[in-house]
Specification:
43 residues, alpha+beta, two-stranded parallel sheet, 40% helix
C-alpha cells in the first residue's frame, strides 16, 4: 500500500471488511490496494 494516504487506506479497509464494492471516481488511488472491489462511477 505504498503511496496511499491515511484517508484512502481507512476508506478502503472499511469497504474491504464489509465485502462490498467501492464506487468512486478516484480509481487511481484506490486501485493500489489489491483485492478491493472497485467501480468507477464516472465511466
Amino acid at each position: 500500500m505504498t503511496g496511499c494516504g491515511k484517508n484512502i487506506i481507512d476508506h478502503a479497509l472499511g469497504f474491504f471488511y464489509l465485502g462490498v464494492t467501492l464506487v468512486t471516481n478516484n480509481v487511481r488511488e484506490f486501485s493500489r490496494i489489491s483485492q478491493l472491489a472497485l467501480e468507477n462511477w464516472a465511466e
